[in-house]
Every structure is written in C-alpha cells, then in structure tokens.
Automatic annotation (TrEMBL):
Keywords: Nucleotide-binding
UniProt cross-references to CDD domains, sorted A to Z: YajQ_like
Cited SUPFAM superfamilies: YajQ-like
InterPro entries: UPF0234-like_C (IPR035571), UPF0234_N (IPR035570), YajQ-like_sf (IPR036183), YajQ/Smlt4090-like (IPR007551)
Source organism of the structure: Microbacterium salsuginis
The protein's name in its UniProt record: Nucleotide-binding protein HF576_04095
Length: 162
C-alpha cells in the first residue's frame, strides 16, 4: 500500500486580507472617534501602512484592522506589526503578512513531529512547506492534532491530504 501524506503550509488569502483592509479603512473613515485625526490604513507595496496623529490612534487603527482580519478568518499569527514610529507630526506602524514557513519554524515543526508524533511518520522540508508521510492515515491525523495543540508562532494549514 502506498504512503498517505499531507502538506503543512502557512498561506494568507491575500484577497481576504485586502477585503479586511478595505473594511478597516471604511470604518476608520466613518467612526466618530477618528474624525479629524488624519488616521489612515493602506497598502504600501507588500506592507500595510497605518498613519495617525498620535501613538494611541495608530494602535487603535491597528486594532480595528486586526478585528477585521479575525472576522475574515485570517489568523493574527500571520500579521507582523512593528511599534508606532514618529515621523514628523504623525505616527506610523508598518505591518506585513507572513506567507510560508520559515526554515527555523519548519525545523521546529519537524522536530516536534519526530519527538512527539507517532514513530511511523516522516516529515521533510520542501521550501516553505513541509510534507508529512506515513502508511497509516490515523497517524497523520494524530500529527494534525498534535500540531493544532502545539503553541507555534506560525499559522498552519493542512492541504493535499491523500
């Protein structure tokens, strides 16, 4: 019998992220507590740029954006935000969406599978994703449960289950 396998990836649906950003921008433009504060959120290339006239307002805009991401089903583990930085009269926060599993996180996940997972399971790193193989589908499901329960600093999805 052939081995069963699945891939572990960390991908962000950019269309959903764009929708969340547009919703956050509309809310910031319409909310009473943001009136006259020159607060904005927009794409700046691949990054997300938040501008406001005070540090607290910039953090509030980031909070609005985070709530929209959660409503759209995007984990906050895939959002990397810096601290507010003063730039002239305004404060800026630059955020990025993390796509793919970094090599050190892939090594951590692979080690976790090796140490705590069923013995028949093999994992191999393929670029920014991991392939997990085993003869038993039950062992693969056990690995998925193990990874969902683990507190990793990366958002994981399981695809290509065969």
């Amino acid at each position: 019998m052939a081995d069963s396998s699945f891939d572990i990836v960390s991908k962000v649906d950019h269309q959903e992220a764009d929708n969340a950003l547009n919703q956050a921008r509309k809310e910031v433009e319409q909310r009473y507590d943001f009136k006259g504060t020159d607060s904005s959120i927009e794409w700046s290339g691949e990054a997300i740029l938040i501008k406001a006239n005070s540090e607290e307002r910039a953090k509030a805009v980031l909070d609005v954006f985070q709530s929209k991401l959660i409503k759209r089903g995007i984990s906050l583990k895939s959002l990397e935000s810096g601290d507010p930085v003063a730039s002239g009269k305004e404060y800026r926060i630059t955020s990025t969406l993390k796509d793919g599993i970094s090599s050190e996180n892939a090594k951590k996940i692979s080690k976790l599978i090796r140490d705590e997972g069923p013995k028949s399971v093999k994992s191999q790193i393929q670029g920014d994703e991991l392939r997990v193989q085993s003869k038993s589908r039950d062992d693969l499901q056990e690995v998925q449960r193990l990874l969902k329960a683990a507190d990793l600093d990366v958002d994981l999805q399981f695809i290509n289950y065969r």
